[in-house]
Specification:
The structure is a homodimer. The first copy, chain A, contains 14 helices and 11 strands. With about 325 residues, the first copy, chain A, is an alpha/beta fold.
């Protein structure tokens, strides 16, 4: 089996499935496993020091001969060093987010790197197209982690984009965890999906076991898009979130919020497993996730769901 | 052309398209036009006095011989009278929302009325199934007007429901305005869609021309889910919303919010066209809506989009 789309042809992969490059979860083990299973594995450089990124790229190359990517949030403090690193190591794909796609797209592309940019709105998608990215990842309100201020849901965002004649591939992201949802997104103009939360819940992700176990138990309404005054982020409503909420109810300033957030909150939660004090970033689709599987099992199940969905004719 | 699904068979309609029964917009003209065009037209009883509902039902029956429905929010003050009215007038379909489906389902069904119940979560969908409703309308965060506290988006909600073996039809609602989105929802287990905002923007809806013109101009991020302490509602960020926000920032109590909201805010905005002082309820998909068409044109366009989407094989 092979699923041929604009995205698979662009990236030279077998299945149009990108693993979201999430902070503290997406190292060489996860990325290489996804690439070996026919998707695009992605290293999450947002939580790596330059030296760690270099090491992760070298490890990933040792573990897979298939294309893989690196996700670089453009607000990253040592951004120049990350950009130099991916160019030096000839990383096949770079996914940029949270910033201006004009900054590095041309430079990366001039070295043969394919550039995808994450957007939360049609407005930003048009800007990314103008910046000559190779593809757009359209990510909705339901996604975990950092998110757009417009609060466009994935369903609304895809319909908005579909009316415009984009020539480059559109990848749907946010709230996707099943093969039937991938087919649904295809029918609204996407030629691939990016999944974060679903890949976080694998054996190969470096998220802490405490965190994965908590995600298993999550239900509807257990995540929320918060911290909108700083940079909107979807997280679990744990004790840390309760203290954020308390500050809001006191009418806190953005400075007070920033100081509560501090540094290392996401690491503490996701990587170190502190479920009380940590910032626990995960998507709304976590309500559906109740197992931790290998990447291979995940891909097989997902592709089976997709295949079944394509065969269904009676609604 | 005819689209045969579990929903069309349940309701005896040609196309699996329900027009949302919205306050101040959904009278006999709109409902009968939708039913005459092969969908299910729905009167919005939430903004009608009992006498007005009776009149609207009689008018609707005069204008169409096809099935139509009445939407009754279960928190309606004169609920008993509305229930008696739909039974007396043998309304084919009743859509209940914002309340406990156990209250009236059996009574309505014992008179041959088909009952659909609107839910915002899997949890409430399971309760509705237990209450023996004939079908479930699963409405996501992106929908206009009253909404769930869980903030499940339509995409997430559909995937959550799809994993459960519901025997009754599931109707997708919230953020849907194109035929391709209907096909997408079918692939996630829906057998029909309900659209509100898209039908509000028709010649037949009784929303004020000022309001319709404003909706034409809306873009991404122009609506928001607010008033979560009272009953969450999606509305346009106009001056009235700014005053709600101001109260929030002062740390207002729910009583203060309730007093600002007062009575008749939705009527003032939607029906009387006061874009400053009115509460302007509309869905997030309003960013896509930039024309006011007849119901017939809307249905033809929508069905063409659906047909095209079913033929697309290359993504």
């Amino acid at each position: 089996m092979k699923i041929d789309t604009k995205l698979t042809r662009l990236l030279g992969i077998k299945y149009p499935i990108i693993q979201g490059g999430m902070v503290w979860t997406s190292g060489a083990d996860l990325a290489s496993a996804v690439s070996n299973a026919g998707g695009l594995g992605v290293l999450g450089a947002g939580s790596m020091y330059p030296e760690q990124l270099r090491e992760a790229i070298i490890n990933c190359k040792a573990k897979t001969t298939f294309p893989f990517g690196v996700n670089i949030p453009l607000m990253y403090p040592d951004i120049e060093e990350h950009i130099t690193t991916v160019i030096e190591h000839k990383v096949p794909v770079v996914i940029t987010s949270a910033g201006n796609p004009n900054l590095f797209t041309k430079r990366l592309r001039s070295h043969g790197i394919k550039v995808l940019h994450v957007v939360s709105s049609l407005k930003f998608a048009l800007k990314a197209e103008q910046a000559e990215v190779n593809g757009i990842i359209a990510e909705g309100f339901e996604a975990g982690g950092h998110n757009g201020r417009e609060e466009n849901t994935t369903l609304v965002l895809l319909q908005l984009l579909y009316r415009h004649p984009f020539k480059i591939p559109i990848v749907a992201a946010g709230g996707i965890a099943t093969g039937s949802a991938m087919l649904a997104c295809f029918h609204m103009g996407a030629s691939g999906v990016q999944m974060g939360s679903r890949f976080l819940m694998t054996k190969e992700s470096t998220a802490h076991q405490n965190f994965k176990d908590l995600v298993k138990s999550l239900g509807e309404g257990d995540t929320i898009l918060s911290l909108k005054e700083l940079a909107p982020v979807r997280l679990i409503k744990n004790e840390f979130y309760a203290s954020v909420l308390e500050l809001y109810q006191k009418g806190a300033s953005t400075e007070e919020l920033r100081s509560l957030l501090g540094r290392g909150r996401a690491k503490k939660g996701i990587y170190e497993g502190d479920l009380v004090e940590g910032e626990l970033e995960i998507g709304q689709i976590s309500a559906l996730l109740d197992d931790i599987v290998s990447v291979e099992t995940l891909m097989t199940t997902f592709l089976k769901e997709y295949e079944l969905a394509t065969q269904k004719k009676n609604f």
